[in-house]
Amino acid sequence: MKYLKFILILSLLSGTIFGQDLTGDDILQKIDSNMVIENAISISTMTIHSRMGTRNITSKSWIGEEEEAYVEYLSPPREEGKKMLKTGDKLWIYTPEPNERIISISGHLLRQSVMGSDLSYEDFMENDILDEKYKAEIIGSDKINNSDCYVLRLEAQTEDVNYHSRKIWVDKERWLPLKEERYAKSGKLLKTTEILDVFQIKDRWYPKKIKFKDMLSRGEGTIMTIDSLNLEVEIPDYKFTKAALRR
């Protein structure tokens, strides 16, 4: 009996019980455990490849708890000083002088592009905890850039999602969604993402460079590069208030 109990414990720790593999929902939980962050400050560069040419936009982001985020644009000069604030399901945009104002973004405006990129305000607002919104099914396996991946189909379990279904390729070792296809309820492919580079902080892996492609746009896509990420910070509560937008 002691031997049997020992084998059972080993099986649980390894994610397999008597030969039964991980479920799709188990894999979603592993993705969330690896990628979801709180209380962090990052600097990133968004490279937008549109029909009008290529341009870079650099921003600094403060990420809090309970779906809080504050973003300040640093360059180019045309965008410098613009800010975004997200608290829960609310989003505000601040534009500095000469026409200083704070605008609430909601409804159909959330589907508009952020700074002409392949990301929408809905993407910015999205809750990153996949396991709370989707039911997952393993539909196969594949290789992405020499990494063995689970292939999962995700179906929305709630109405408050931007994409009704998704197909993702999940790295079996680092629990990163290396490739993703996002679909409308009609089955139309709306957007794709691809992780081009990764980096490690302690025992967790994060995307270093991600390519987003809006399939309804004629541009060549937008690449988001994480220039720095600090996870050991304390962010004051005022940072996630409307008053902070005017500072």
Structural features, described:
The protein has 247 residues and is mainly beta. The protein has one domain (22-245): outer membrane lipoprotein receptor (LolB), chain A (Clam). The chain has helices at residues 2-13, 24-35, 121-125, 242-245, and strands spanning 40-50, 53-63, 68-75, 83-87, 90-95, 101-104, 134-144, 147-156, 165-171, 177-183, 189-201, 204-214, 221-230. Strands 6-5-4-3-2-1-13-12-11-10-9-8-7 form a 13-stranded antiparallel beta sheet, with helices on one face. A hairpin with a 2-residue loop joins strand 7 (134-144) and strand 8 (147-156). The chain starts with a helix and ends with a helix. Mean pLDDT is 89; it is low at 1-19.
What multimeric state do the chains show?
single chain
Helix fraction by DSSP (H/I, runs of at least 4): 10-25%
User: Which CATH top level class fits?
Assistant: Mainly Beta
CATH topology heading: outer membrane lipoprotein receptor (LolB), chain A
Order of helices and strands: HHEEEEEEHEEEEEEEH
**Shape by Cα distribution:** globular
**How many helices?**
4
How many structural units, i.e. domains?
1
